[in-house]
Amino acid sequence: MNLRKNNPTDYDLVKQYIDGNHDSIDVLITRHKDRVYTYIYLIVKNHMLTEDLFQDTFIKVIRSLRLGKYQDNGKFLAWVLRIAHNLIIDHFRKEKQNNTFSKDDYELDIFNSSKFCDENCEDDLIRNQIHQDIRDLVEELPPDQREVVILRHYKDLSFKEIADQTDVSINTALGRMRYALINMRKSIDDRNMSLTFQ
């Protein structure tokens, strides 16, 4: 008796859905709906908003599966919760449109975005997510670009001080920062990350 046929894994169901079995997505949603709904509700504390975000989450899940954006690593639920989490952050961010800094250039956009006006749990959620995402992006940069970003934005050095410390010209330091920001932007776009602060 094949237990996997009677009790397919998330991976099996995803593969079946991608292969054209549309019933498989219903099984996946039914399997995880309580965890996803509860996760959203514990953060937003509003049933109507939770319903909307829950629907949006699975619409995005289905769209991402169709576009081949899911890489199975045995953590389907974690992936779904990450999508939900990003949609929650998007919602809170839209509510705060009037309280964010103006977006004059993309350096300010990336590094000053977490300075919101009110201090509450929504701000903490957004800030923590932004900080973690930015740290991850910085870690992925080539070493010379990563060094300039850390010295500039985490150690608060001027470009002249960075040039002196790294033994390069100011233009080289500025160029490395420029390429670092371009690379970070590309990663943000490629991963469809929620780091647009408008």
Describe this structure in words.
- This protein has 198 residues and is an all-alpha fold.
- The protein folds into 2 domains: 1-95, RNA polymerase sigma factor, region 2, helix turn helix motif (Rna Polymerase Sigma Factor, Chain: A); 100-198, Arc Repressor Mutant, subunit A.
- The chain has 10 helices and no strands.
- It has helices at 3-6, 10-18, 23-44, 47-66, 76-95, 106-111, 121-139, 143-154, 159-166, 170-190.
- Helix 8 crosses helix 10.
- It is elongated, with a radius of gyration of 21 Å.
- Residues 100-105 and 113-119 have low confidence and may be disordered.
Keywords:
Arc Repressor Mutant, subunit A; 198 residues; mainly alpha; single chain; elongated; 10 helices; 2 domains; Rna Polymerase Sigma Factor, Chain: A; 0% strand
Order of helices and strands: HHHHHHHHHH
The span between the termini is 55 Å
The general outline is elongated
Assess the beta-strand content as a share of residues.
Answer: under 5%
CATH class of the largest domain: Mainly Alpha
Determine the mean pLDDT.
79
Largest sheet: none
Name given to the CATH homologous superfamily of the largest domain: Winged helix-like DNA-binding domain superfamily/Winged helix DNA-binding domain
Number of domains as seen in the coordinates: 2
What is the name of the CATH architecture of the largest domain? Orthogonal Bundle
CATH fold assignment of the largest domain: Arc Repressor Mutant, subunit A
- By secondary-structure content and strand pairing, the structural class works out as mainly alpha
Radius of gyration: 21 Å
User: In terms of quaternary structure, what is this?
Assistant: single chain
**Regions with pLDDT < 50 over 5+ consecutive residues?**
100-105, 113-119
